[in-house]
Every structure is written in structure tokens, then in C-alpha cells.
Design a protein that fits this description.
The chain is built from five helices and four strands. By secondary structure, the chain is an alpha+beta fold.
């Protein structure tokens, strides 16, 4: 399957670059093609996640490493797969990846929307969501954040 980037315009989707234009030129008028719509991840949003991870790590003695904060945030947000130990019946949660290839921008934004309230209630009680957003914007630069 060939993946291309398109841009939404008033008249529909348009190829976003020359490579995409070349691919679409090969499709004949009237042909049916399968299209998977995924908004590519925003690198700035990814930076915001790790700014949150590092902010928590720097201000907490509960974690031995930023990697543990990262894993805990994914668990708190429900971004995990359950694994059942057949011998004991015990269920373990294994955090899923947030890599660019494993989730698109919409999925990442949903994860962010779930994790920030959890940080406010379970990790840093007393901090508000706007305070977290302000601090993250200060750390990564508000100008780099585009939804």
C-alpha cells in the first residue's frame, strides 16, 4: 500500500506534495481506491508529553526514572493491554506504545485529554489542568504547540 499525505481543502482532499500528486495521477477517473485517513502526529504534541514526564520526574520522589513516569502515565490513562497469568489468574497491565507509528494525532490527543486530569488528581493533587498546560507551554514554548 502506498501512503501519501493530503491536505483538506474546501473542495475535498488534495495531494500535499509532488510524491502524493504522482501517486494520484496513476489513479484513473472512476477507479475505486481504499483510503486510510490518519492525521500524522504532531512532533510538538509529542514534546509536550515528554515535558510532562520530565516535569513530574523532577518534582517527585515517587519515580526512579523518567521511564517509570512515562509508563505510569500511560497506565493511568488506560493506554495499556491486559495480560492474565494463567497460573494465578492475576491480571497485569502492559503500557502500549505512543510511538508515531502506533497512534495518529487524534488518538494522541485523546490520550492527552485522559492523562492530564489523572495527573491533577493522582500524581500532583491540587494542581489544575490550566496550570499544567501553562507549565508545559512554558517548558516547550507555546508557539510550538498547534492543535
Amino acid at each position: 500500500m502506498t501512503a501519501i499525505l493530503c491536505r483538506r481543502t474546501i473542495s475535498g482532499l488534495s495531494p500535499d506534495d509532488d510524491a502524493a500528486r504522482d501517486v494520484l495521477r496513476k489513479v484513473k477517473v472512476g477507479d475505486v481506491v481504499r483510503v486510510e485517513v490518519r492525521r500524522p502526529r504532531n512532533l510538538s504534541a509529542h514534546r509536550r508529553w515528554f515535558a510532562l514526564v520530565n516535569m513530574i520526574y523532577a518534582n517527585s520522589e515517587d519515580y526512579g526514572s523518567p521511564e517509570l513516569v512515562h509508563a505510569h502515565l500511560k497506565l493511568l490513562a488506560g493506554h495499556a493491554d491486559p495480560i492474565v497469568n494463567k497460573a494465578t489468574g492475576e491480571t497485569y497491565l502492559v503500557p502500549k506504545s505512543i510511538s508515531f507509528s502506533s497512534m495518529d494525532e487524534d488518538q494522541f490527543q485523546a490520550l492527552w485529554a485522559r492523562v492530564v486530569p489523572k495527573v491533577c488528581t493522582e500524581i500532583i493533587p491540587g494542581i489544575s489542568e490550566p496550570e499544567i498546560e501553562d507549565e508545559i507551554n512554558r517548558l516547550v514554548g507555546a508557539s510550538t504547540w498547534q492543535r
